[in-house]
Design goal:
With 152 residues, the chain is mainly alpha-helical. It has helices at 11-50, 74-85, 91-100, 110-120, 144-151; strands at residues 89-90, 125-129, 132-135. The protein folds into two domains: 11-66; 74-137, Arc Repressor Mutant, subunit A. It contains five helices and three strands. It has a three-stranded antiparallel beta sheet with strand order 1-3-2. Strand 2 (125-129) and strand 3 form a beta hairpin.
Length: 152
């Protein structure tokens, strides 16, 4: 096993090396804190200017930004988009239709989320072929609320 670079030093020399390193760490931490304050100020200015146009994704601590709020769930937005066409749709077309309807998402991978939702919601959506989905059963032209109110 190789000997450490500090093997030939006496205690006083090792203590001096440790003190120098602590001083350098403290200096770097102060610098980091100062730069972080400046970065936070820039991010606040960007958020102020951009408004709701973009989230602060990709910044420290994961997602960042605020969660987008929608009047309808993603499942309902997908169902409404598919009902509007009345025919099977590709995942990319579903994503475009959902976003065109006003649904907002801060996700970097919104297409993946839509795809997972289509797979998970087998009661509402059927896979016509690879990457192509349609509404399941005879609900193509009406919503569940409309179907249940007619049944009553």
């Amino acid at each position: 096993m190789p000997r450490p670079a500090t093997a030939g030093f006496n205690i006083a020399q090792l203590e001096r090396i440790l003190e120098d390193r602590r001083t350098e760490v403290n200096r770097l931490e102060r610098l980091r804190n100062e730069l972080q304050r400046k970065l936070d100020g820039v991010e606040r200015q960007i958020a102020k200017l951009a408004g709701g146009l973009r989230g602060l994704r990709g910044r420290r601590g994961g997602g960042g930004g605020t969660r987008a709020r929608n009047e309808v769930s993603l499942v309902e937005a997908i169902e409404n988009a598919m009902r509007g066409t009345g025919k099977p749709m590709r995942v990319g077309d579903i994503v475009d239709a959902v976003q065109a309807s006003g649904y907002r998402s801060n996700s970097d991978n919104f297409r993946g989320i839509v795809n997972q939702t289509l797979i998970k919601e087998r009661k509402r959506f059927a896979q016509a072929e690879r990457g192509v989905y349609q509404l399941k059963g005879g609900e193509k032209g009406r919503s569940k609320k409309e179907a249940s109110s007619e049944a009553a």
